[in-house]
Amino acid sequence: MDILVTGGAGYIGSHTVVALIEAGHTPYIVDNYSNSSPAVLDAIRKITGVSVPAFKFDVQDESKLNRLFSRVSFDAVIHFAGLKAVAESVERPLEYYDNNLQSAIVLLRTMRKHYVNRIVFSSSATVYGPKNPVPFTEGMDTCATNPYGWTKVMIEQIIRDVCVAIPDMSAVMLRYFNPVGAHPSGLIGENPNGIPNNLVPYIQKVATGDLPHLNVTGTDYDTPDGTGVRDYLHVVDLAQAHVKAVDYTLGKTGSVEINVGTGKGESVLNMLHAYERACGKTLPYVAAPRRAGDIAECFADTRKAKELLGWEAKLGVDDMCRDSWRFVSQN
Ligand code: NAD
Ligand code: UD1
After folding, report:
1. Marked catalytic residue, from 148, 202, 232, 275
2. Is the pTM of this model over 0.85?
């Protein structure tokens, strides 16, 4: 299939482009490189031997998007493009609503115009909000605690409404839990600028010596070791879920939400110790106050992914930390 991948130069997008090529598809990237670099295209070529057609523009640019849809008859779209930093979204809500909502609306309108009816959308476990009990199941009410999260809740609703209005449309909304790790080649991975907000990118910088220690944000949660529990998922497994989701849209109509996680929760300290095993060093940490808005536990009920997509995670935390460490030590 010819598949448009918006945000395909980003962390999850680049791994998905590799998985699509390996599955025999032809991906096309649109990315404005606001949070990535065209250098990833070389890395994808080294991994797969394929030069992926890539177009540098903002998905909100409807005339450029229309021109691309006129040139290529896409069979499906995977929509990753968006801003994703929670704290930044609290500081700059209009940027987040503008970029994330407008990109989705322009994309859906262009798909409609060109009779492209299949979409896979990057949603997030953040839509379960702070009140639902774990494990999170897809039928639970959704809500958010920050502008980033609200854009996910809202785009899901927009897609559901479009699927009602256009009976031929087929949409899969994948609710990712905590994607970490890197491609086993060490050529693509996650390397945020500045001080990372998320756990594994922060641990990476402690392991490279760029940061002195991990601040464990919350040690008094009602969890086995007092630290927060999350469902960490290897980005290579997550990429495979997209290949399965695109296949699923064939011959289907309507919209569906699907959790993508391992179904297993790991504590902050367990992740830190897994990373110590991967890099062969002791990594210092200090206890720090809870982060505002954090919940004790977050992990997925994964039955729907298995039933509908035939997908389940294969890789564990040691694989995630090993591949993350290979990526940072090679780059
Ligand atoms: P990323 O920032 O690495 O990738 C997003 C890509 O989209 C970047 O390459 C960026 O340059 C591009 N982009 C942003 N706005 C654009 C626009 N208007 N037009 C064109 N390109 C644009 O992020 P990621 O971690 O790969 O996340 C991909 C998607 O998955 C995002 O929608 C994110 O919200 C969602 N998600 C990520 C996580 C996570 O932990 N990484 C968790 C849940 C959901
Ligand atoms: C983050 C996002 C959330 C998104 C999710 C999945 C934030 C505030 N929330 O949440 O919207 O859906 O990723 O991608 O960014 N921790 C530390 N020290 C640190 C960083 C984190 O101890 O320096 C702890 C946290 O308290 C938490 C765990 O590590 O218990 C994981 O944190 P993080 O990687 O930010 O993921 P989420 O909290 O799930």
Report:
1. 148
2. yes
